Amino acid sequence: MPVEAFAILVVIKWCGVPVGVYAFIHALMQRPDAYTAIDRMTKPAWLGITAGGTVALILFGLTGIGWILWIAGLVATLVYIVDVRPRLIEVQRGNRW
Question: How many Å apart are CA 25 and CA 29, to the nearest integer?
């Protein structure tokens, strides 16, 4: 693998880590009753998912067989950010009439 391609993969790998950290911290700061209000899994479940995803983003890279676990970690954290986070914000904000 050329050095340039490897450098790009390293940059992509480490760009995923802040995403996972952000997802975990956001999940940690939310009220537990907000998770049940949006009919999603509980707060401890999402904390486990985002923590596990973040650990996978840190430990595994995009080379070798570990890329499958890296992708799984990225998908887990992105599901929280794209699906759960907006609903949590909406429920905790309430109607803004």
Answer: 6
In sequence order, the 6+-apart residues with CB closer than 8 A to the CB of 85 are 23, 26
47, 55 contact by CB (below 8 A)? no
The pLDDT value recorded for residue 65 is 87
Residues 54 and 73: their CA atoms lie apart, in Å, by: 6
DSSP state of 66: G
Structure tokens at 50: 């985002």
Among candidates 62, 76, 88, which has minimal Cα distance to 9? 62
Residue with tokens 């904000």: 93
The rounded distance, in Å, linking the Cα atoms of 1 and 45 is 39
List the chain domain ranges. Answer: 3-93
pLDDT digit string, tens, across residues 15-59 = 999 999 999 999 999 999 999 999 989 999 999 999 999 999 999
Output the pLDDT for position 13: 87
